[in-house]
């Protein structure tokens, strides 16, 4: 049992997470969170609604405009700060908006994801579950 606790702690936020819509409560996608050059990123690796499998980010700006959401990096450049990851961005591919982001583990299988503009208390949160 102790080995399992240490393994989950070591794994941290890296892995695959099922995203849950904070408004509808429905599972939307699987995001793979990975580390690159000491920072944390997240890429959409599966879209759960078959009708949206080929959706594109029509509202995105720059290089993400009209790109497929499947395979898109939506979490960019988070840095570890104590028990959370901060100072990065998260893209909402539904509206093309880029928000400041923090993520934090809640136990070993839940991830609190917060996107906001300006101050952290003005934003919205989602809880993702480990796949």
Tags for this entry?
Lipocalin, 8-stranded antiparallel β-barrel, 1 helix, globular, disordered N terminus
Describe it for me?
The relative contact order is 0.18. Residues 1-10 have low confidence and may be disordered. It is built from one helix and eight strands. A hairpin with a 6-residue loop joins strand 7 and strand 8 (123-130). An eight-stranded antiparallel β-barrel has the order 1-2-3-4-5-6-7-8. The chain has a single domain (2-130), classed as Beta Barrel (Lipocalin). The protein is globular. The chain is mainly β and 131 residues long. It has one helix at residues 2-11, and strands at residues 15-20, 27-36, 39-47, 73-81, 84-92, 97-105, 110-116, 123-130. The protein is 8% helix and 51% strand. It comes from Flavobacterium suaedae. InterPro entries: DUF2147 (IPR019223). It holds the Pfam family DUF2147. This is DUF2147 domain-containing protein. Residues 15-130 form the DUF2147 domain.
Radius of gyration: 15 Å
Give the domain tally: 1
List the secondary-structure elements in sequence, H or E. Answer: HEEEEEEEE
Biggest sheet: strands, sense, closure? 8 strands, antiparallel, barrel
Helical percentage: under 10%
Mean pLDDT: 89
Helix and strand content put the structural class at mainly beta
Number of distinct beta strands: 8
CATH structural fold name: Lipocalin
What percentage of amino acids are in beta strands?
over 45%
The separation of the N and C termini measures 20 Å
Backbone shape: globular
- Assigned CATH architecture: Beta Barrel
Q: Which regions have little confidence, pLDDT < 50, spanning 5+ residues?
A: 1-10
Number of distinct helices: 1
Highest CATH level, the class: Mainly Beta
InterPro entries: DUF2147 (IPR019223)
Protein name: DUF2147 domain-containing protein
Pfam families: DUF2147
Domain DUF2147: 15-130
């Amino acid at each position: 049992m102790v080995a399992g606790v240490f393994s989950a702690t070591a794994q941290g936020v890296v892995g695959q997470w099922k995203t849950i819509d904070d408004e509808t409560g429905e599972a939307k996608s699987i995001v793979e969170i990975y580390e690159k050059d000491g920072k944390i990123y997240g890429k959409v690796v599966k879209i759960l609604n078959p009708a949206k499998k080929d959706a594109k980010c029509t509202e995105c700006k720059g290089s993400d405009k009209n790109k497929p959401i499947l395979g898109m990096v939506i979490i960019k450049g988070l840095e570890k700060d104590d028990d959370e990851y901060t100072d990065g961005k998260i893209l909402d591919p539904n509206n093309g908006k880029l928000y400041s982001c923090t993520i934090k583990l809640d136990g070993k299988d839940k991830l609190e994801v917060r996107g906001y503009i300006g101050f952290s208390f003005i934003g919205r949160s989602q809880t993702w579950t480990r796949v």
